[in-house]
Amino acid sequence: MNTITVKGVKENFEISRIAFGTGSALKELSKEEFFQLFDTFFAKGGTVLDTAPGYNRGKSEKYIGEWMAERGNRDKVIISTKACHTFEGEPSRLTLKDMLEDLELSLSQLQTDYIDLFWIHNDDVTKPVSEIIDAVNEVIKTGKVRAVGCSNWSIERIEAANNYAKEAGLYGFFANQIQWSLARVETDDYKKAFNALVMDDESYDWYVKNDVAVFAFSSVAQGFFSIAAKDGLEALPELTRQFFETPNNIKRLENVKAYMAKHHVPASVPVIGYITNNKLPGVALTSATNVDILNETMAAADVHLTEEEVDQLFNVD
């Protein structure tokens, strides 16, 4: 499995560059099905389970905790969970009180005494970054988190937050969670539907320059490449076509199909490999509702693409 180094609070540590997401896609699954997916993911070399205290009304964290307890493998699992989430129109929850409440809820549901990757979700641009970073560092003082990142923060706010942290001798954000995939989002439809930030050229260049990692959600573009490569664009769900079916992405689909034919691999290999072999340090957040889909995803676990191959997949000129 390809790995990436996380800049931790006390020490750096290695994690897999594919993370298994436990969000709403799994809401209909039983505990036994969750366990089967976790077992498969770890058997294939994965180490990161991405979750949140509210995912599936707490079921996701609860099942992760029960699975770790049953398998006795907490020291081998990288728990990635979030705090401060709000829905559109709700007031922000970026206070120390909110962070600590969410942290303690996650610790309880997960049956653990520490979180490996703790994400501050949803920025509030009316709040000074100093106030937020000060609160984050109070959380760090509890000794219950190994690294702190942010989710859906703009590069301008991350830069301001990390600059403040550096000047004050505090810890900043090691990474950001945003939408990033080989299929570039070129309209506002995805942003509006998910209240999410997406990768663009300016952001990409900033992340590379500042060595800030990106945890890429919707890293396979809702199956755009795998479905279209197998059954054609007309087989794609309507919303996937709305979000991702653009002339440039159709050209990238041809790049993917050329790589598949040359190397005799499923679409997941070049699509996820684009993230996990990128010069921008990235982790591909993926999910699966059954073992067959997960096995196809994990076919990309050990793929090594050259910089030239990564560029060939993305370039459309």
Output the keywords.
NAD(P)_OxRdtase_dom_sf, two-stranded antiparallel sheet, alpha/beta, 317 residues
Q: What's the rounded overall pLDDT mean?
A: 95
Beta percentage is: 15-25%
Low-confidence stretches: none
Instruction: Give the distance, in angstroms, between the N- and C-terminal Cα atoms.
Output: 32 Å
Biggest sheet character: 8 strands, parallel, barrel
Q: What structural class results from the helix and strand content?
A: alpha/beta
Your description of this structure?
The protein has 317 residues and is of the alpha/beta class. Helix content is 44%, strand content 16%. It contains 13 helices and ten strands. It has helices spanning 31-43, 59-71, 96-110, 129-141, 155-168, 189-194, 201-210, 224-231, 238-244, 247-263, 268-276, 291-298, 307-314; strands at 3-6, 13-16, 18-21, 48-50, 78-83, 115-121, 145-151, 175-179, 213-217, 282-286. Strand 3, helix 1 and strand 4 form a beta-alpha-beta unit. Helix 1 packs across helix 2 (59-71), helix 1 packs parallel to helix 12 and helix 4 (129-141) crosses helix 5. The protein is globular, with a radius of gyration of 19 Å. The two termini are 32 Å apart. The mean pLDDT is 95. Residues 18-313 form the NADP-dependent oxidoreductase domain.
